[in-house]
Amino acid sequence: MEKEEDHQALAELVQAMNIEQSMHVSLTTPLPPPPFPKKVVPTNSSHTQAKPILPYPLHHLHTLWLFTVNDIKSILIPQSAFGIITALSGPLLTTNPSPSLSAVLSTLPRVLLWTYLNLLTFDISNQRLPTSLVEDSVNKPWRALPSKRLSMAQARRLLCFLIPCVIATTFWLGGCLETLVMMSLTWMYNDLHGADEHYAIRNLINAAGFMTYNYGTSRVAVGQGHALNSVLEYQWVPMVGGVVLTTLQMQDMSDQKGDAERGRGTLPLVWGDGVARWSIAVPVMIWSLVCPAFWQLGLLSLGFALPVMVGGVLAGRVLLLRGVENDKATWKVWCGWMMVLYALPLFKDHSVVSRALDGFAPFQLGSLGVVTRSAHSLGINVLSL
Question: How much is the pTM?
Answer without folding.
Answer: 0.79
